[in-house]
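Re: How this chain folds, sequence and tokenised backbone to follow
Notation: Tokens come from a learned vocabulary of local backbone shapes, not from coordinates.
Start of record: The labelled sequence and token lines come straight after this line.
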Amino acid sequence: MPGSDAEGITDALSFLRTYNLRGSVPVGKNVVVIGGGNSAIDAARTALRLGAEKVTVVYRRSARPCPPMKKR
């Protein structure tokens, strides 16, 4: 994806792995998470807990097929 190597951009699994190993990850005031899977939602919630003021989740489909929205 163009821009995926820009400063401040990381994938959800790396972000979560670093958080789990170090106990903290620097986050900005505004965080955008692209995706709707479990890792994306975990990353969004973790960013909020780490102090992000606003977290936006961008998903290219409707919420209906979004995996975390499925009832278990």
User: Anything to note?
Assistant: The mean pLDDT is 87. Residues 38-49 form the longest helix (12 residues). Strands lie at 30-34, 54-58.
